[in-house]
Amino acid sequence: MGGGFAGREVSEDVAKQVARSFLNLKGNEQIHIVKSGKDADYEVYSLTITDPKTNQETYMDITQKGGYPLWVLEDRDIKKQNISLNDAMNKATKFLKDHRFESLVMAESAQYDNMGVFTFVEQTESGVRIYPDSVKMKMSLEDGSVIGFSAKDFLLKHRTRDIPKPKISKEQAKTKLNSNVKVMEERLAIITNDLNEEVLCYEFLGTIKNDTYRIFINADTGFEEKVEKLQNSEPLYNEVENLYFQ
Length: 246
What we know:
The protein is α+β, with helices and mostly antiparallel strands.
């Protein structure tokens, strides 16, 4: 139990204070709080926050150890779009910085109906992206508010890593790419491979015709570790939904 979260145990009152601050609550909301069951992977306070005027509910988990916001999901319909996906991304970025997630960069975005879905990942000062350390967010495109937030992966996996030097050059890694790929971005990144091991890769963001791909080539062996097709919003949306309700 505990799941690697740092800090001491916090009380229910402290958890409520965390929720009020994190969600910028007005103060008149009803907060129902329970402790997680004994079968949970880590111990959390599960909060149900009800707005007395609208009866709209927000669900939130806060770790008992350290009092970290783990995930948030707001239960409401987003009826129309008033802001762009880019505006929502900027609001999400500001929200993260305001809550001290300062070293994260936006790695993926998609729109589903009137919601923006974003994945942010850790980026070191030298520009290496750490994909296991990720935060996922859903933003309303009606008013730019946060309607979904999950820092589970970030909080469980974040640590200082000793990043090794690549054994092959970026040019050598590029020779492993399909000749039809037009490379738009390139960088070093750490990902989790199929064996659940963290590996250093060259990441290439490129296009083939109208499709965009993210390709990871192992920086030691030149092996193609992973290929992801981007700009396909529904699978990403479903992935975030599943993650919130785990």
